[in-house]
Amino acid sequence: MTAPPVFDARGLSKRFHMGQATVEALRGVDLQVSAGEVLVVAGPSGSGKSTLLHLLGTLDEPDAGALTIDGTPASSMGEAERTAFRRIRLGFVFQTFNLLPVLSAQENVELPLWLAGVSSGERRRRAHEALAEVGLGARRGHRPDQLSGGERQRVAIARALVHRPLAVLADEPTGNLDSGTAAEVMELLMSLNRAHGTVFVIATHDAALIARAPRRVALHDGRVASDERKASA
Questions:
Q1: φ/ψ bin of 126: left (φ > 0), alpha (ψ from -120 to 50), beta (otherwise)
Q2: Count: domains in the chain
């Protein structure tokens, strides 16, 4: 039996009301993401990239259409179930890192495990391993303000992966980084995908990152304009 897609979106639509105006952020988006894929969602600001990631991550609900995640209809989950699902099955990486400034790198990475009720010893072990995997084992005691932008994003990636999620959703993860550091972060994500098979869905308008993506879906005015896969070498 063929495994279901990790994400199976059918006809997703989302609108926002801004004063008397209505903005159609997504207009009937169909998208399937299979196990082990790295997918880049490309498009200019306002094309619907972030809205799509929010729907895939159950952070918001569509106005129309249906979403199934690993065989489970998102509409069948109540708010508490969605919260638990995000905590256990999904990881998130943001442009602004979203690290707690008073916590060390180690403590920031431990946070999802603490929320999940993992014991302190196991939290420390797994966070240490995750930081070592992103090249920051020696920096685990540093707070975010003692780290470079690239290092902070690596901490955020370690935090997203520490509980070994089904998929990681990354919204403009290199938007605050210079081009060299951005390339290093993209290579890290690809390496982690190869090592663990974790699905990555990455929203970006960075042309260099888009060019390196194994699969690229372009959004334009809330619709899928193209869906392309890089030819195998």
A1: alpha
A2: 1
- The answer to whether residue 106 is domain-embedded is no
Residue pLDDT tens, the chain, 233 long: 567 799 999 999 999 988 888 889 999 999 999 999 999 999 988 899 999 999 999 999 999 999 999 999 999 999 999 998 998 899 999 888 899 999 999 999 999 999 888 999 999 999 999 999 999 989 999 999 999 999 999 999 999 999 999 999 999 988 888 888 888 888 889 999 999 999 999 999 888 888 888 999 999 999 999 999 987 64
Q: Note whether residue 155 is domain-resident.
A: no
Residue 53 located in a structural domain: yes
Domain hosting 196: range is 7-98+165-227
Q: Say if CB 3 and CB 35 are below 8 A apart.
A: yes
Q: Does the residue 103 lie in any domain?
A: no
